[in-house]
Amino acid sequence: MSKTWNQTRVAEKLGIVYPLIQGPLGGFPSQRLTAAVSNFGGLGSFGAHGLEPSVIDERIAEIRSLTSKPFAMNLWGSMEDQGAHTSDDAAFQRALSHLSPHIKKVGGTTPSYSPYKAIRFEDQARALFDADVPVFSFIYGIPPKEILDEARRKGVITIGTATTPDEASALEQAGIDLVVASGFEAGGHRGSFLRSSEDSLTGTISLVPQTVDQISIPVIAAGGIADGRGIAAAFALGAEGVQMGTVFLGCEESGAHPVHREAILSGKAKHTSLTRGFTGRLARGIHNELLETLNRPNVEILPYPLQRGLMRSLALPAQEAGDAELLALWAGQSANLTQCTSVEKLLTELVESVEDKIDR
Ligand SMILES: Cc1cc2nc3c(=O)[nH]c(=O)nc-3n(C[C@H](O)[C@H](O)[C@H](O)COP(=O)(O)O)c2cc1C
């Protein structure tokens, strides 16, 4: 009997019905979103990179209380950039000087410099293993061998993220189970690890087939996929699964602030840009006054994660003031195609649309 479109190695390995993955949305946590996608028969993910191990533990328990299906917990292989420990008050004040007018405009309090406290990736990974998570996904590199050995011993499925075919090969050689090939259309960070992010800006339609040709483990396509056309195209390129992020930020279950959701759903999201200004690392968001400020050549950007900390002083008051021009509106290039209300409605429509396209 011939297989249907959804019966791929990705679905089989993960034990899910549809190889449709809600990508981790670090910084926008929503246990409800993760569980809703898994309950539908896809794979929900939870971005846990900014969380202390004890909090990760609580989030896993909350997700488990909402679903008995497989879900992924996601971490970042690299948690700080060079210079994060030596960056000082003077650099903080220089970076702040460009944001101060914006912070004042939305009624925020001027932040003061405080040294950075690291969370260790190894401690976070331990929390995932102790909680017996079914799937461990990650971005920004390859975890140390001991961690991957433990994942294999415990039967935890691993998903790595590649922004070039060579990164995908490195992940395959390390024994990772599945690879997300993430084109530069994607929302969120550009998680490159062999070359700089700026030097790894391959688009999805180019990256996916080259990655499929270069490795033998299954490839999951990500970046700019927001409807049935995109999913069918990714499968035609050889992907065996699809990971979407921005489209889920627009859903009612998402952890995004209503101002952010509204910007994604409002039809104003046609113009997105890359910036280091949101966190210190290259990421994509809707082009607005804030992104324009951050991308000016004279604006100092602190190393990750200091810039991320600094930006919080603006994010909270901008949200309260409902100011979409001064909020970091994380989104990918297909934000404008996004039409989510609830996860169930979105996924039902996506599945129907893919089936229709594949039949035709
Ligand atoms: C706000 C936001 C946060 C994200 N955080 C993470 C993260 O912590 N870890 C990760 O592996 N991917 C992260 N991603 C990437 C998504 O999981 C997904 O691969 C990507 O959004 C796919 O591209 P799309 O936005 O065009 O759908 C993030 C994306 C967005 C939009």
Keywords:
360 residues; alpha/beta; TIM Barrel; 2 domains; 3-stranded antiparallel beta sheet; 14 helices; 13% strand; globular; binds flavin mononucleotide; monooxygenase; detoxification; Propionate 3-nitronate monooxygenase; FMN
Q: Secondary-structure blueprint of this entry?
A:
Blueprint lengths: L8 H6 L5 E3 L8 H10 L3 E4 L5 H14 L4 E6 L12 H17 L15 H10 L4 E5 L5 H10 L2 E6 L2 H9 L4 E5 L5 E2 L14 H11 L4 E4 L5 H9 L4 E4 L1 H4 L8 H8 L6 E4 L7 E4 L2 H6 L11 H16 L21 H17 L1
Helix pairs in contact: 2-3, 3-5, 4-13, 5-6, 7-8, 9-14
This protein binds flavin mononucleotide.
The site of flavin mononucleotide (FMN) has 29 residues, from β9 and α10.
Folded structure, characterized:
This protein has helices at residues 9-14, 31-40, 53-66, 89-105, 121-130, 145-154, 165-173, 204-214, 228-236, 246-249, 258-265, 289-294, 306-321, 343-359; strands at 20-22, 44-47, 71-76, 135-139, 157-162, 178-182, 188-189, 219-222, 241-244, 272-275, 283-286. The chain folds into two domains: 1-80 and 118-253 and 342-360, TIM Barrel (Alpha-Beta Barrel), CATH 3.20.20; 85-115 and 255-337, no CATH class. The protein has 14 helices and eleven strands. The protein has an eight-stranded parallel sheet with strand order 1-9-8-6-5-4-3-2. Residues 23-28, 47, 49, 74, 139, 161, 182, 185-188, 222-225, 243-247, 249, 330, 332, 334 line the site of flavin mononucleotide. Flavin mononucleotide is lined by residues 23-28, 47, 49, 74, 139, 161, 182, 185-188, 222-225, 243-247, 249, 330, 332, 334.
